[in-house]
Amino acid sequence: MEINPILQNVLAPPVLFFLIGAISVLFKSDLEIPAPLPKLFSLYLLLAIGFKGGIEIQKSGFTDQVLPTLSAAILMSLVIPLIGFLILRFKFDVFNSAAIAAAYGSISAVTFISAESFLESQKIAFDGFMVGALALMESPAIIVGLLLVKFAAPKNRPKSRKMHLSSILHESLLNGSVYLLLSSLIVGFLTASSNPSGIEKMEPFTGQLFYGAECFFLLDMGIVAAQRLPRLKNAGSFLIGFAIFMPLFNAFIGVFVARFLALGPGNALLFVVLCASASYLAVPAAMRMTVPEAKSSYYISTTLGLTFPFNIVLGIPIYMSLVNTIIPLSPL
Questions:
Q1: Cα distance between residue 26 and residue 285, in whole Å
Q2: Distance CA 119, CA 135 (A)
């Protein structure tokens, strides 16, 4: 694996701001981001990436590659939590296994955005329809996690915690991040179809401000991730190993699926990153509400304190190297 892409990724402004945020906690700086701002920037990033993705999908159309790729994305978000659940059951109960597995079956939009920035820095082309895969991969893992609890949990679980299919679907399909991302995708698609001048009017907001907002958001993520690090002591070596092994394992499966789909290097990396990332927002919110027996310190500390920084600092260039090695091989 080449060292240069790793250095370029580490020295990119978003990653540097993430590290600056983490270092501020380690050295006990009084740097603090007011609570509403990270939420605002999170919503902004979802809106912007969804809007731009909708525009690109309208431009590219639903080609022979789009639908198979989106279908494969949904399939991966159904399979990954099942694999994770089987591994985690060696050490944890049903509740914790399902919650952690759902987090690793879902995705991280910020990791996806970081991968896009990496591709742009390497001048590697990718298609906007991959945003559709991002939007479609968040909910299925939540559904699988909740169904695992529903069918595998002890029968003496209190009736107040019994889950109904309608509540599972509502929680997974209408949580804030999924709703905003899908809505922005539709708005971008309709704008590009019927009102192209609207794209120019939105450009200063969704285009020129995007990179700066990403840096600011990652600065806060660095602070939050570093604050979570001490809680990893409670997770134990098994879960810490899982937090690194599972993304690499998922990336390995993802790159072969990308090769089967005949994706180009840029799209393949985004697909692999989606498979290898883990949710630290939507899934924890759903699990806290519906599976209170699971320890949030497990699935939040590992995804946010370990897997997320690993992916944006080292994982993305490692996955690119994996793509460059396996994709050029003869077709499956």
A1: 27
A2: 20
Task: Give the whole-angstrom CA distance, residue 200 versus residue 214.
Answer: 21
The Cα-based distances of 223 to 28, 40, 231, 270 in angstroms read 11, 17, 14, 25
pLDDT one-digit tens code per residue, 170-188 = 766 777 777 887 888 889 9
3 state DSSP class of 330? coil
Render pLDDT for 223-258 as a digit per residue (tens, 0 to 9): 888 887 777 777 788 999 999 999 999 999 999 999
- Helices within 61-174 (DSSP H only): 66-88, 94-105, 109-121, 130-136, 138-152, 165-173
Token digits for 169? 């679907």
d(CA 55, CA 128): 8
Continuous segment of H or E residues that includes residue 325: helix 316-326
- Dihedral of CA 172/178/183/186: which sign? negative
Measured at the CA of 69, the angle between CA 53 and CA 284, to 5 degrees, comes to: 70
**Residue pair 55/192 in contact by the 8 Å Cβ criterion:** yes
Q: What is the DSSP letter of 196?
A: T
Q: Are the CB atoms for 78 and 144 separated by under 8 Å?
A: yes
pTM of the model: 0.83
- Looking up tokens 């995804």 gives 303
Dihedral angle sign, alpha carbons of residues 127, 132, 133, 138? positive
Closest Cα partner for 300 from 214, 235, 220? 235
Do 73 and 137 form a contact (C-beta atoms < 8 A)? yes
- With beta carbons less than 8 A apart as the criterion, state whether 15 and 114 touch: yes
What's the CA gap between 226 and 304, in Å, rounded? 9
CB atoms within 10 A of CB 230: 11
The string of pLDDT tens digits covering residues 157-172 is 666 556 666 766 776 6
Which 3 state secondary structure label does DSSP give 332?
Answer: coil
